[in-house]
């Protein structure tokens, strides 16, 4: 019972805060140089001597075919990790920009991963994906609550709980978080921050 309550509360918070995506988008994206969780490994940023980066927590989730995908499988790629839901209006606004980024930059090593929160069974998410022409990887639960666990770990690692979606991270080729965004952003904003790592 206690375990179920732990997962219901974050879902409730995300449901309430999704509609604040527009207001949150007005705040600037967060540079993670001074924000680290208690267990985070920090690496000196080779792109800038004044910044540090946080090691992105590894995880394993299922793609829409039921195949297991781990973040560690993507080492050597630049990952745009997006926490989102099919029911979230601000999340939907980002999808065309992610589709465009994937088309233009996948060949340069960009991988866009959508961690799908509280959106129902894989078939429902697959139907949504086809309707929106999503050309990047969508991940969901394996047994029931893994996406909530991943969400909590990313909040803990960055010392900033994920309380609203979309929340997106840039993870460099070595697996370090370089940027965090709360609320929707445009293709131009994402590309400007991704470009140094591609």
Structure description:
This protein has 198 residues and is of the alpha+beta class. It has one domain: Glutaredoxin (3-Layer(aba) Sandwich). The protein has 6 helices and 9 strands; from the N terminus they run H-H-E-E-E-E-E-H-E-H-E-H-E-E-H. Residues 1-16, 19-29 and 33-50 have low confidence and may be disordered.
CATH superfamily: Glutaredoxin
Main β-sheet: number of strands, strand sense, barrel status?
9 strands, mixed
Q: What order do the strands of the largest sheet run in, or round the barrel if closed?
A: 1-2-9-8-5-6-7-3-4
Question: What's the overall average pLDDT, rounded?
Answer: 83
Q: What is the CATH architecture descriptor?
A: 3-Layer(aba) Sandwich
Give the oligomer, counting copies of the same chain as homo and different chains as hetero.
single chain
CATH class: Alpha Beta
Distance from first to last alpha carbon: 45 Å
Radius of gyration: 16 Å
The count of domains is 1
- DSSP helical segment count: 6
**Classification by helices and strands:** alpha+beta
Strand composition percent: 15-25%
Question: Which range best describes the helical content: under 10%, 10-25%, 25-40%, 40-55%, 55-70% or over 70%?
Answer: 25-40%
The ordered H/E elements are HHEEEEEHEHEHEEH
Strands, total number: 9
* Named CATH topology: Glutaredoxin
User: What overall geometry do the principal axes of the alpha carbons give?
Assistant: globular
Q: Low-confidence runs (pLDDT<50, min 5 residues)?
A: 1-16, 19-29, 33-50
């Amino acid at each position: 019972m206690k375990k179920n309550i732990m997962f219901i509360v974050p879902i409730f918070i995300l449901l309430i805060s999704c509609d604040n995506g527009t207001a949150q988008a007005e705040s600037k994206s967060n540079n993670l140089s001074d924000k680290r969780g208690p267990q985070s490994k920090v690496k000196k940023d080779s792109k800038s001597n004044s910044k540090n980066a946080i090691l992105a927590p590894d995880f394993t989730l299922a793609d829409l075919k039921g195949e297991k995908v781990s973040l560690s499988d993507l080492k050597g790629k630049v990952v745009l990790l997006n926490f989102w839901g099919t029911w979230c209006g601000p999340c939907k606004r980002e999808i065309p920009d992610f589709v465009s980024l994937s088309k233009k930059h996948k060949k340069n090593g960009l991988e866009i991963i959508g961690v799908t929160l509280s959106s129902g069974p894989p078939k429902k998410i697959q139907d949504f994906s086809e309707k929106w022409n999503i050309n990047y990887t969508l991940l969901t639960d394996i047994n029931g609550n893994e996406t909530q666990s991943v969400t909590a770990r990313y909040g803990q690692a960055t010392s900033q709980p994920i309380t609203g979606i979309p929340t997106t991270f840039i993870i460099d080729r070595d697996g370090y978080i370089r940027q965090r965004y709360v609320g929707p952003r445009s293709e131009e904003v994402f590309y400007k921050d991704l470009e140094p790592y591609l």
